[in-house]
Prior knowledge:
The complex is a heterodimer. Chain A is of the alpha+beta class. Chain A has helices at residues 2-9, 15-37, 40-45, 65-82, 86-103, 110-123, 133-138, 148-167, 171-175, 180-185, 200-222, 227-244, 250-257, 264-278, 293-308, 320-323, 365-371, 375-391, and strands spanning 11-13, 140-146, 285-288, 338-348, 355-356, 397-407, 413-414.
Amino acid sequence: MNFINHTMNRKVTIAPLVTFRILFGMLMLASMIRFWANGWIEELYIEPTFYFPFIEGVRPFPGIGMYVVFAVMMLATVLIIIGLFYRYAISAFFILFTYVELIDKTNYLNHYYFISLISFLMIFIPAHKAFSLDARIKGSETSEVPVLYLNILRLQMGILYFFAGIAKINSEWLLKAQPLKMWLSANVFQPIIGPLFRYKITAYIFSWFGMIYDITIPFFLSFRKTVYTAYLFVIGFHFITWWMFPIGMFPWIMMVITTVFFPAGFHERLLGGLKTLVGWNRVSGTRVDHITPIYKVLITVFFFFQLLLPMRYLLYPGNLFWTEQGYRFSWRVMLMEKAGSATFYVRDKGADQSILVSNYEFLTPQQEKMMATQPDMIVQFAHYLEEVYKLKGMSDPVVTADVLVTLNGQPARTFIDPHIDLTKVENNWKNKDWILEYE
Amino acid sequence: MKKLGLGIVIAGATVLQACTSGNDLLDKMNDFDQGPMLENIGSSIILPAYQSLAKESESLDVAIQSLVSGPSEENLIAARTALKSTRLAWQACTPYQFGPAESINLSGVLNIYPVDTLQIENNIESGSYDLTTISNADARGFQSLGYLLYTPGLTDAEIVSSITANRGRYLQDIANEIALASATVYQEWNVQGGNYLAEFTSEDAYGVNVGSSVGKLVNAMNKDFERNSRDGKIGIPVGIRTLGEPVFHAIEAYYAGYSVELLQANIDAYHKLYEGNDNVGIEEYLKAIQATTTDNTDLSEKINAQFSSIETAANALSDPLVEQIENDKTAVELVFAEMHRLVVMFKTEMASSMGVVITYQDNDGD
């Protein structure tokens, strides 16, 4: 009971939640603006003719629909920052963001999944009950909240790091320093430390350091004595990854929201400064928030699944990196170098002549690249081809594919059974036994 | 924390040393500099290729002008020769459709095929057209000239006498457009002009990311080789998209009939790029970074061997491609298969070991 009290019920200042709300809102707003400015709404959700949805039927809105979706998300982030209609704003953001991510597996990134989870958790967190327009309207501010709210955010971040580290414990990463050998080698032209990337030993040091960093950083961040030193490592680590790899906003998001581990005093000083800046007058009434037992149960279930998901790959035979069965939603970040080429053949049942599909007629280069190494996407595309060639007059199209994949700099090898009719294959939780064995 | 981390790293390194039973951990795995390669490819391959294209296009423009102002069989032959030289010069440029060439859509202006002959005839008849509009996208370029200089069903004398005022103006307009576009791209690359060469070889463009020169080059060559060389020149004509039924009118230089020669020149251009014109090229690059890959030691030789297979298969073909397909389709299909193998190598092992992402677009990864 003492443990539960210490990690859930104990009352702490609301300040870290408020900073988190504001920082998260600002980061998301910046991400949306960047996404829009880069033309990615057009490129990823309007231009393609075909999508690889996570759930069949999830599709982008036509016309300017997707721009509206992003505009609403941007409005929501502004409301989150100023704390107005907070629950509606964060709920809308969670739903729309998750919807956008479900449209196309091509665009799946672990940090998008992370943002979906965080925004879901934030729906139930009273981060708007102080230093917010909601509090102003209500006429009272919450001063203290149960520590559980804070701890679930920390736990979610901790899970990301920890599993990312566990995933690095494999012979490729630790004993062969792959794929870092190749990735570092591509950066030898960088100024100052670039020449170091010419040496094998650097790849090994980076591999081992990355693994140790990921596994231990949540713990070092959790102890008051080590939190600031650990944070220096967080900045250094993410700065290097940002500098070397095209991973967008992720390093900045992590650098900023890791401050949720900082002691209350930091957040109170930060908010104090911010309040002076905007001329915030204290709201007179104060109150203390409580949590219900049902919330505790639900949150426990939520995290229980969080722990199970990354382990689900154990239920499948074969090499995880090769089959990718149970690979996503498991914090396997920057873990392998995979490239493939998939050539599809379509013929009518019984006919001996087939059509060789030019993927670029149907897919964007990015879609083609992602599809060529991920079995469930290969199936989705094959099913789409079945429909296309039915419309073109075939009665029962048979779709097969020659797929060659290189993993971590190994010679390319055949990925799936080249004879299997992919139109007869379904995507489900069962083992895909038509993926050829890796070794 | 620092001490613990360092301790584990040292311990790990010791274990590694023992496990890998090699003492090469302190060795370099990549001793390659992109600078000399980019310099070599830029100034000894790309720039001369565009220079030659600009020169030949200008001669073509002049030859067409002579033909139009003084229609004769002699001038017709001269114009045809100039057209062929320009097309051959173009084959050396196709891998480099990035930067200046991409921004003016050079390949769209020069080498769209099959052309829409009905649209061409309509344009000539009406005498009013704008070659830069979408509806005329397939009524210009080399093959439109080819159609007008080798019009099917007409003898040379008939072609010469068919050059009316409108027809002559159309010939000139197309030749002009070709010459202008070619000259523009050359001037953009040229040191005395836009000096894109300097941008291509600058240190800021080192690396393999989307904006880097190697990133652009590998993406552009991969895209062109798959879509235009493999599918456009061979695959589509031989029937890969039509259940094995040949599509003759989709052949490059369908009217002029020297498609195989163009194909061979194009393959030569790719091989030259790969070998860096017998200097530092992609081949050297792959050799230099082979230590960063796993068991992929012979990739550079594998690709070289694949070029040889393609060349052997392509040399077995003869012009005109229509007859070649009619007489021995298998030989043509073999060329396609060999080219396809090279596409796969480009997309998988080559791109992966270089760290180049084949996407042609900027995006995040993780």
